[in-house]
Inverse folding.
């Protein structure tokens, strides 16, 4: 979504997010942007699930990393540090392996390379 047309849309409290997303997916630009964020959402979801499985609060994880709880909250909301060093520190604190990969896209660029 470009910045000129990117007006913040608020969802009324109590409106199921799945219904909202389903409606927005009818917009091809929204759908493209949403799909592009899939890997980020998946990684953050995995980290949150593992933190909870390890019975750690955001404060516990932050203490283990030597940072403050708001840093973890921002990361979990995808507003904070997303560099690899920070991800490695989180993985280490959660006693987990971090695996990141690049996969070639299929399409015009792949066809040109062939």
């Amino acid at each position: 979504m470009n910045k000129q047309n990117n007006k913040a849309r608020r969802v009324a409290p109590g409106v199921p997010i799945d219904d909202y997303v389903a409606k927005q997916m009818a917009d091809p630009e929204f759908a493209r942007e949403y799909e592009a964020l899939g890997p980020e959402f998946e990684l953050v979801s995995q980290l949150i699930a593992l933190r909870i499985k390890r019975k750690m609060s955001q404060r516990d994880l932050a203490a283990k990393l030597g940072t403050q709880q708001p840093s973890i909250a921002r990361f979990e909301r995808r507003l904070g540090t997303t560099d690899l060093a920070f991800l490695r520190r989180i993985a280490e604190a959660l006693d987990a392996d971090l695996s990141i990969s690049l996969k070639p896209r299929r399409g015009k660029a792949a066809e040109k390379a062939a």
